[in-house]
Amino acid sequence: LVVDDDPDLGRMLEDVLVLEGFRPIICSRAEEAIEVSKTESFPLAFVDIHLPGMSGLELAAKLKEQYAEREIVFITGSSTVDHAVQAIKLGAYDYLRKPFTLTEFRFCLKRFQEKTLLRHRILRAEQRYSQLVQNLPLLIFGLRCDMQLDFVNQACSSILGYNPEEALDTPQWLLERIHPEDRARVEPTIASIFTITEPPSTIECRLVHKNGRNIHVMIKFIPSWDSRSGRNLRYLEGIIVDISDHVFLEKALVQKEKLNTLGAISAEVAHEIRNPL
Could you tell me which residues come within 8 angstroms of residue 155 by beta carbon, excluding any fewer than 6 positions away? Predict the structure, then answer.
């Protein structure tokens, strides 16, 4: 969108924008631009500060209200400190002072395109990261120093039977899931992680599933230290792994070993009975 009451400048910018692959909309008044913005979508607007009627600064504020991510480049024939301050407060993307060259205008466009490309790359990276975290078969959580969950992924549902919204809305949800017989050992350990310099990296305990059954887990802690002091721990991230099958297998192996030992002893006793000295 280009909003300027100078028709010659408007036509020139329109030609340049078309050559650069854009579909420009040219307006000469702020009121016209507002009407256009109700039906048209545009990520970038060049706005003359000194417009007849509503000022460019007022127009920019309204355009930002409609879509906060919209970038505004102010065009002005005179630059004052007051205008610059207001432009900064409105989150101006750039500032072109008349008369500006086509090179300056194209450089402004190039910066916008590079920023847009970077924003899209960041968004795609965040989406990939979110999909990865949400689909891992591990319960990933974030815990504040008040023991309130700040984040939990979808595995919360498959491992413990609670959806993430339930977990986040329940005060001290993680602590409440600890088996009563393990709580006296585990709760102080988790609380101490926020105060000691070398916290334990893992804890094994039992958590209680929503349906009441016990889940044997290993909790891996990843402390997040204050970047300035390197000491104060304000946030704790962690991973919960369901090791129930492993625990049951170990118990089964131990039981099998006991049975084998008992069988050997029984055979020896039977042999002694059959063959007394």
Answer: 136, 137, 138, 139, 140
